[in-house]
Amino acid sequence: RFTARAEAADPATVGKADADPSDIDAQLAAADVEVAQQQVDEAFARLIKAVRNSAGDDRDRVRSHLVELFGLFPNDDPRVAKARRDLASALF
């Protein structure tokens, strides 16, 4: 599922997401592009920021997307461990 999304995402999506942080769809697509380009820390930080700045269904969509991205990496990946801590902080 991620591979198809990443391949379909336009790299210009990152610029669009940067220009409008409130555009949840752009944030999700930009994170996929960043992960595909090995910019994992940037993708995780983008989505954690989106969790902090959103509420309700949008917040849950972002959280779910981030958790899905975590699944692409080993559980002992330090980037995932840090992002999980940051996500917990953003949620509570």
SSE layout and pairing:
Blueprint: H1 2-8, H2 13-19, H3 24-36, H4 40-52, H5 56-70, H6 78-91
Helix pairs in contact: 1-3, 2-3, 3-4, 3-5, 4-5, 4-6
Give an overview of the whole structure.
By secondary structure, the chain is mainly alpha-helical. The chain is 75% helix and 0% strand. The protein has helices spanning 2-8, 13-19, 24-36, 40-52, 56-70, 78-91. Helix 1 (2-8) crosses helix 3 and helix 4 packs parallel to helix 6 (78-91). The longest helix has 15 residues, at 56-70. It is globular, with a radius of gyration of 12 Å. The relative contact order is 0.14. The model has no long low-confidence stretch (mean pLDDT 91).
Largest sheet: none
Helix/sheet category: mainly alpha
The tally of beta strands, per DSSP, is 0
- Poorly predicted tracts of residues: none
Per DSSP, what share of the residues sits in E-state strands of 2 or more residues? under 5%
Gross geometry: globular
Instruction: Please report the number of helical segments.
Output: 6
Q: What is the alpha-carbon Rg in Å?
A: 12 Å
- How far the N terminus sits from the C terminus, by CA atoms, comes to 29 Å
Name the helix and strand elements from N-terminus to C-terminus, one letter apiece. Answer: HHHHHH
Q: Helicity range of the residues?
A: over 70%
What do the pLDDT scores average to?
Answer: 91
